[in-house]
Amino acid sequence: RDLEPTWLAADRLLFLRQRRSERAPALWRLEKDGNPALVQRNVVAYDVAPASGRLAWLGLDTRPQPFGALGTPFALWTAPDLDASGQVITEVGWTLRELSWNHAGDALIFDGGRLADVNLAVWRWDANQGLTRVSSGPADGQAVWQLLDQGVIFARRRGAGNSDLWLVDPDGGHPRLLFTGGAGARIVPAPAS
To answer: pTM for the full model?
Structure first.
């Protein structure tokens, strides 16, 4: 199956593909000449920074995990472009979901948490500050960057299928409630202009 196609500059297409025999999808690119090229195996989600072309992906973590860790371990990886090898960002023992670069391509936000924790949160990563927890709730996720990277908007689940929308500064400060009582609504980022 082919999933999540993304057009890149220079007429290249990036997509996920999973064969029945594979544990997780692989990230592929389709070159101008129509030939597919494998970028990375065991990828469950990815994003490409609009301005810089930097690549980030969530992949199955094959490193030894902590004793007693529950759930499927993932790692967050980044690379300066599609042709470079990746660098792992998270330590061992994380579960991760969605991720998103800011427009400039110098910071990532993602949903996740340590496998020892039952709580998921929104996290921010950049090369200068490393990992910073952006949200404080026990069930936060679906984070997207606010226009011009001025803040992070995320959903906080409150049980019974209800969610609230929150806005925080990129470092997690100044939380502001934007909307309350949504019945499990999904946040969809606006297309880049």
So the answer is: 0.76
